[in-house]
């Protein structure tokens, strides 16, 4: 007999069939009603046992969390809340879960408590819903690029270059930390390390993606990236997944168009395919926010918010315009920003980004043409000589969700920049080759996948939208 999923059974019209199902007990009421879940859906199937016909010792093991094999007949449900249920004829306990020890009991657990039990938290409705949405978003991303003529490119995880030039890298080495080989002047001699040079975990696959775009036209990477930045916030992870498309012959406008269309498309796909889970997450959020003052509650329920993003244009604003708005806004004048905006050229902090998105424009915003000084070396210099063709997409409740740019394709301008920033040109020899041989206008961006999942699920902390979060002082599991 084929093992049916609970999702299939719940929508089955084929009553009175004999079926077998396996799953985990959510609850067992009145020694009669087992709510069984197998992860295929948020919902449980009700399994009805006539306890008179079952061994009491077996039924004693039917506790929350236990794994069961159930055989029975699918019948129309007598009770409310479900259309079908299983009249159980045979029940086998595959694996017990001692109620004295099993931490995921049917009651409300705090997200903090569940974070410490990341291996078991996926057994709650909240985390199962989040992770199904996460999986659907990942699929939607691949689907979008495939339908739009992109090739999926696998960037290396271990690399010798610092793509962002921010120096926030995890070193990869096999040298003996207690007795590393030294050079004549006493520095660690990386020539003797595994790769014969200093290597690290990648912070971004962009530079390698550029090489591929300059041959395949349109490519994207979707993989883990690593940043050793010591920011213990609800928006930062040390290991996160990034989606990075890179396109030959795209200027910044085409790049922004693509980014906007891409985000709308994957959210729309998720609205269609995760309705049940999104409804659950929407109610979870409404419930959580009940105890908060009105001002701290979300402006829209989750699904309405997602539809709003799909249906409305993102507002495009230059950095220079944004600075004017910020300089003259109330919180700045009243000195309510932790970092007051005084002059053109300062980097925007998340408090500024959130003011623009949540208070001023009330919609997703694309900021573009940033000062060259606050952006990475590879961005294309504008005619004004002081701004670069960069763009960041800012989302309500999230802040920056995308960072991208048109790349500097002119060899001489790029070399000048590299010199200015004191980067070793030799390290970037292959990257410069791309400008020597068949150089062309090209652009791309990086989307922080967990920030997208945060937005789509309405969760408040990035640690709750990745299975096993890695953050400063934490790499359990
Ligand atoms: O803005 P970032 O640093 O851009 C790049 O890495 C470019 N090389 C991308 C490109 O053009 N191909 O990072 C891109 C996005 C950010 O907008 C943010 O959403 C996410 O990655 N991100 C993080 N997400 C979680 N934890 C962190 N520590 C993150 N750092 C960046
Ligand atoms: Mg950025």
Automatic annotation (TrEMBL):
GO MF annotation list: asparagine-tRNA ligase activity; ATP binding; nucleic acid binding
Keyword Cell membrane set for record: no
InterPro entries attached to this UniProt entry: Aa-tRNA-synt_II, aa-tRNA-synth_II, aa-tRNA-synth_II/BPL/LPL, Asn-tRNA-ligase, Asp/Asn-tRNA-synth_IIb, NA-bd_OB-fold, NA-bd_OB_tRNA
Superkingdom of source: Bacteria
Aminoacyl-transfer RNA synthetases class-II family profile domain: residues covered: 131-467
NCBIfam families: asnS, PRK03932.1
Catalytic activity: tRNA(Asn) + L-asparagine + ATP = L-asparaginyl-tRNA(Asn) + AMP + diphosphate + H(+)
Quaternary context: Homodimer.
GO cellular component, one term: cytoplasm
Protein family according to the UniProt entry: Belongs to the class-II aminoacyl-tRNA synthetase family.
Organism: Maribacter hydrothermalis
Gene responsible for this protein: asnS
Subcellular location, principal: cytoplasm
Protein name, entry field: Asparagine--tRNA ligase
UniProt subcellular location: Cytoplasm
């Amino acid at each position: 007999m084929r093992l049916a999923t609970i999702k299939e059974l719940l929508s089955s019209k084929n009553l009175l069939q004999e079926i077998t199902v396996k799953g985990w007990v959510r609850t067992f009421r009145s020694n009669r009603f087992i709510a069984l879940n197998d992860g295929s859906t948020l919902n449980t199937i009700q399994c009805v046992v006539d306890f008179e016909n079952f061994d009491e010792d077996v039924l004693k093991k039917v506790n929350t969390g236990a794994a069961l094999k159930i055989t029975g007949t699918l019948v129309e449900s007598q009770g409310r809340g479900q259309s079908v249920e299983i009249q159980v004829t045979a029940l086998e306990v595959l694996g017990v879960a001692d109620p004295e020890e099993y931490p995921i009991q049917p009651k409300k657990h705090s997200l903090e408590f569940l974070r410490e039990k990341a291996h078991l938290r996926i057994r709650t409705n909240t985390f199962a819903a989040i992770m199904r949405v996460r999986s659907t978003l990942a699929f939607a991303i691949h689907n979008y690029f495939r339908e739009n003529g992109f090739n999926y490119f696998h960037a290396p995880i271990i690399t010798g270059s610092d793509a962002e030039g921010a120096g926030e890298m995890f070193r990869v080495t096999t040298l003996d930390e207690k007795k590393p080989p030294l050079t004549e002047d006493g520095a660690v001699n990386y020539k003797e390390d595994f790769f014969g040079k200093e290597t690290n975990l990648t912070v971004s696959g962009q530079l390698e993606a550029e090489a591929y775009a300059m041959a395949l036209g349109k490519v994207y990477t979707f993989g883990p990236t690593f940043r050793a930045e010591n920011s213990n916030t609800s928006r930062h992870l040390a290991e996160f997944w990034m989606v990075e498309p890179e396109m030959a012959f795209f200027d910044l406008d085409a790049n922004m168009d693509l980014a906007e269309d891409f985000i709308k498309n994957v959210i729309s796909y998720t609205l269609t395919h995760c309705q049940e889970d999104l409804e659950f997450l929407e109610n979870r959020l409404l419930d959580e926010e009940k105890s908060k003052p009105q001002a701290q509650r979300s402006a829209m329920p989750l699904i309405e918010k997602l539809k709003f993003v799909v249906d409305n244009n993102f507002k495009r604003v230059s950095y220079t315009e944004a600075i004017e708005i910020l300089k003259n806004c109330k919180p700045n004048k009243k000195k309510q920003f932790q970092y007051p905006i005084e002059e053109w050229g300062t980097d925007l902090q998340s408090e500024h980004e959130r003011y623009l998105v949540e208070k001023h424009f009330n919609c997703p915003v694309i900021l573009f043409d940033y000062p060259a000084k606050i952006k990475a070396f590879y961005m294309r210099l504008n005619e004004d000589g002081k701004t670069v063709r960069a763009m960041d997409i800012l989302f309500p409740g999230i802040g920056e969700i995308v960072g991208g740019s048109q790349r500097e394709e002119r060899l001489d301008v790029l070399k000048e920049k590299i010199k200015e920033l004191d980067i070793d040109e030799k390290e970037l020899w292959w990257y410069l080759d791309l400008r020597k041989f068949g150089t062309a206008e090209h652009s791309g961006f990086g989307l922080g996948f967990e920030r997208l999942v945060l937005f789509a699920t309405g969760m408040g902390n990035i640690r709750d939208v990745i299975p096993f979060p890695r953050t400063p002082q934490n790499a359990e599991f």
